[in-house]
Amino acid sequence: MQSDRTEEPTAAPTEAHAAEPAGEDPGGLALELLVHGVGGATPEEMLDDPRTVRITGDATAAVYRRTEDVDAEDRPGEYADKPIPEGYCWSHLTSGNSARALWLILLPFMVVNLAHWMRPAAQARHRAVRLHGLVVRLVALSLTVLLAAAACEVALDLVAWQCAGQPGCAREHSWLGFMAVDAQGGGWWSQPGRRIALAALVPTALIVLLWWLSHRTWSAYESQPPWRGQVAEDDPAAADRPALCLPGFWYGRRLVARLRAAHTAAGLLTIAAALAGAATRFDRKPGGSAWLDALGWANAVLIMAGGLWALYAVCRRGRKESEADEGGDRLTVRVLPLASASVLVLAALHAGWSRPGWGSSGELPGDEAFSVIAIAQGALVVALAATGVVLHRAAPVARTALCGLAAASVAMLACALGGVMSGGVAQWVADRLGGQGIGPPTVLTWQASTIPVLLVLLLVLLCGLLVRVHLRSRQLAAQVHQGYPGARADTPRSRRIGRAIARAALTDSAPAVVGAVAVLTLLLGAAAVLGTWLTGKTPGAAADGAPLVVDGFADCVQALGSWLIGAVFLLFLALGRRAYKDVSARRTIGILWDVGTFWPRAAHPFAPPCYAERAVPDLVWRMASWTQEREGGRIVLSGHSQGSVLAAAAVWQLDPVTRHQVALLTYGSPLERLYGRWFPAYFGPRPLGALHRELDCWRNLWRLTDPIGGAVRLPGAEHPEVDRGPLQDPLAYGRTTRRPLPAPLLGHSDFQADPAFDEERDGLLARLLTRRHRAGAGEREEGGEPSPETLPAQLSEDAEGEGAPA
């Protein structure tokens, strides 16, 4: 049973601790702070006890203890030879209530935000680094424009312009009856301009919803004040501090607010441009109203001015990490969205003005808009690829994913996801309306037709990977029993172990798969735009008159692509609906957010919120406040999987005094295997080496059967003692007297079952104690670091100024 009991905030020493004589605490108390990984874990699972108590935190993220350990500090003698176990549970940050299912529509935004952090590790090329961030922010802005354009295509073009303009289609859908055109002309809403002005409420509501979600989630997740501890100026590692050590890394309020204003304005101005484009196209025809035409020109100027302002807000500056970015930009944040909303209202009034003789025939100019967006995204991705190559060549790092092209590849996948979702909803709505001649723009049909081709190529690639796994597993099956002294070969057992190792190694092939998909997507997208421009027809119609094989292939890919893109959209809806009702499905989707939302929102403000901006300060505050209350207190920060990434990020944020009392134990850790390869500027060999130099007490456990975790691979002879592995998995090859039943393959889970876990944890605690005895308090103060006596006052001041820690 879990209790909700909480203790008082630990920002300053409690009276009980302050009153204790200095010699009463033996100085041997140790804390084991467990941090779970992807998918989450309950406090009962983490602490292996059905009775847990919440020590500090709230229902979203909190620290728990076993009931019997709540008052462990008052009984130090009972914990002289063992640590006090605590568990930090952060799973509700990514897979909490049912509203998280709506985050599926934010998937392209999350992916492009990842691209920002994938730049190569070339710190000295400042201009190229800034250009890299700028290009990613522009790609992110294009995704917002694409989303708004897709919403306009559905609401304004397919529904209000095409279907409501056809009496037959409008009669089949009674909810469109008040906008229908009949023999007498129809009612007040039947004029095309008024129909599209009313339909503009749908994309406007979508943009406002995204603005609200961004603002609300920032307040709930990312507004935690950072730890105020600073690095001593004469700290030997201060000159080579990784970015994650900087005090403002996990607090980018100013950038998120400015980008939120710019993207909101861009979305509203896209809707205004759709309204103005439809109205001015009629006004500029012979017989059109001169003053309405002049008002249309004025609208165009205002839309262009607002767009330039939004573009300037995006291009002006990136993240500021040297300190907490709490600055202003009030003019942009407050005025730009309101000004854009005013332009949208003016465009709606202009479009809704009475225009006798105006009829809605054909389609709105969607082909031009979507083609321009596709070309702009392709050009930006190519520019991002060129910048990445320059940065990688300036400071090449071994094992970097795609040699600097990772950011461009992931940005291309984000654009492809945005295109699939846009085309899917347009195709699905067009099919549901069912009117004669009603359909999405031609360019979207061409893009949908490339999906079957891409899937066939992907199938060939996956088949090659499966063959590789099969051959590798057969090779390993003849060797695995040799790792167990005295074991006799058991062919079925060896095959299972060999397959597990071979499948786990597929993770290292992910860069090649991502790169291949990105290149194919870019080429097929370019072919779709060229096909639209050269023929102006759908693929099937463009192939009329060609040889039968070509004509049949074109018809097949067009029909299959249209069906697939609609099916993908329905799949998103089904996943969202299931996640809204099913906790287990919501938890599965939460795993995606665990990996994708670790990083702060630096490129797209509408991306799902960064849980690390809450979790990292939580861990830092807990470790700093616990150690400063107990002279000689020691902490083993124990992180599994994604929890090891959070643990490393928290250690980077600690002040030197606290860091000397902390050891790091990671297991199933993707620090080097995934984060080091894909995010080399932040988790490459240089930052991880700096972390080890500053922390010293660090051990990492890994297995060959683990598809996620791996060795840290610190370079040079000065880091030989971090990794321990590969650990045996399974723990026993066959049946033994100690293990009479077959031992399971553990893979990525249950590292605590391995005896190496307890050995390394106890070894780290002993090492901390030995180092504390060797380095006296006088030596620590001579090193220029803050004296322990000053930390309680600092914590008290921070608690008064910023509020008590969570």
UniProtKB/TrEMBL annotation:
Signal peptide: none annotated. The chain crosses the membrane at residues 131-151, 196-213, 261-282, 294-314, 335-353, 369-391, 403-426, 446-467, 512-534, 557-576. The keyword Transmembrane applies. Residues 9-21 have a biased composition (Low complexity). Residues 797-806 have a biased composition (Acidic residues). Residues 1-30, 769-806 are annotated as: Disordered. Keywords: Membrane, Transmembrane, Transmembrane helix. It comes from the Bacteria. This is Integral membrane protein.
